[in-house]
Q: What sequence folds into this?
C-alpha cells in the first residue's frame, strides 16, 4: 500500500469516527468531501498528510 493510500484511508476513517458515517460523504460528481455540520473540502485533501490528526505523523515525516 502506498503512503498516499494509507493517508487517505486514515483521514477518511478519522472523519467517520469523529462525525459518524451518516455525516461523512464523498460527492463524486463535484470531487467534494462533506463532513460534520459544515465541513467541506476538495476530495484530494483526503490524501494530504495532516488533514486530520490521524495523519499528523506523516506530515512531520515529509517536513524533514
A:
Amino acid at each position: 500500500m502506498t503512503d498516499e493510500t494509507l493517508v487517505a484511508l486514515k483521514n477518511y476513517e478519522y472523519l467517520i469516527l469523529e462525525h459518524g458515517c451518516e455525516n461523512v460523504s464523498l460527492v463524486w460528481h463535484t470531487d467534494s468531501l462533506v463532513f460534520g455540520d459544515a465541513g467541506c473540502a476538495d476530495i484530494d485533501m483526503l490524501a494530504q498528510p495532516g488533514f486530520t490528526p490521524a495523519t499528523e505523523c506523516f506530515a512531520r515525516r515529509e517536513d524533514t
